[in-house]
Amino acid sequence: SISSAAEKAIVVDSGRTYVFIACLRDLLPVYFVEKMSSLEIQDYAACDGQNRDVFREIKNDILRSIPKHGPSFQNNQIDEMIASVRSDMITRQQNDSVKLRCGEPCPRCEISCHLEAGHSSQNSEGKYSGTVTTPTLFTITAVTKQLLKVSKKSSSERFRKHDSCHQPIGLAGMIWDSHSSYPGQLCAPNCAMQVRNRQSFIHDNATHPYVKFDIVYPEWRLPSMEQQESLKLREYIFYNYQPQLAAAYSALSCSKIPSEYNHTLSTIKRQLENMIDGNSSD
Questions:
Q1: Does residue 250 lie within any of the structural domains?
Q2: Fewer beta carbons within 10 angstroms: which end of the chain, N or C?
Q3: Is the pTM of this model over 0.70?
């Protein structure tokens, strides 16, 4: 980075200091750029009258100041540094260059939460028990209190629940139960499809409709087809690797895979390239 900035500054006729610093800002990590912003430079033409090689001398002085041999660290010191860096990356959310993602897996399809690390999600206190009982005045009152408690949360707090674009739940080994039309087969729909199709799932030995996903799992948002983006690569894997998936999970292959899962690798590649180009233009 320093060498590149020095070479670019040498070839211009005026404003070499500005070119040198501008290149460093583009090439150095955000942490160092923030330190540079504290420099109060008034005259960017101050070095124009000096020998052009002055920037090479600056580069060489910096490189000579760096020890030839890096320090050695013990394992516990490395662990402490990793924890410190990770904590700093989480708390320094003003830096968009690197943001850790939450990574909490969906309890059904096991896809990771895509919100930033450290976001707050609703805790599991008052979690819906899932037991099927005859409604009584006591249970109705308890549920009503729980709903009122949740409704008092601000919309921003609800938005901070775990969230993701869900994958075919068969990729996590989920299978259709014995009462379905495809018993024992890997399940093709993702969680959002299951909500749309009014399907049910088993949790804590009880059956729950997917529309109560965010009640059974109060720390997660309800999956929605309106917000669901197609995870083409994962759908491609589910569509094309049924024998391998069935063997891995000791299950039956899925006999009814949605036709929209039949992507081509060229389509997936083009989508990823468009995503990269979009991020680069921001």
A1: yes
A2: C
A3: no
